[in-house]
């Protein structure tokens, strides 16, 4: 693993909500800490209501994690563009986050420990 990235099981149960809708809840979430950045909670894809997510064309590259794909959150009232990302084929050093999703918190998306 890149020496400045730590991945561990997130303690407790975590939920993610958007526009009042619960997108998922998990006791199998991972916490990724990269350098001085705030921790990011990654949810197993199987614990997320994928019907709310719409894959977009956006991608990005991290030299330590690999190529990220993005999703928009679609609720009854709004579309939150590119607010979810996933490393579907991450670099070997962070392979634990494969098949996990992370959400930009704040605003209309809430990621919280229950």
From TrEMBL:
It comes from the Bacteria. InterPro entries: DUF427 (IPR007361), DUF427_sf (IPR038694). Residues 15-105 form the DUF427 domain. It comes from Roseobacter fucihabitans. This is DUF427 domain-containing protein. PANTHER family: BLR5716 PROTEIN (PTHR34310:SF9), DUF427 DOMAIN PROTEIN (AFU_ORTHOLOGUE AFUA_3G02220) (PTHR34310). Signal peptide: none annotated.
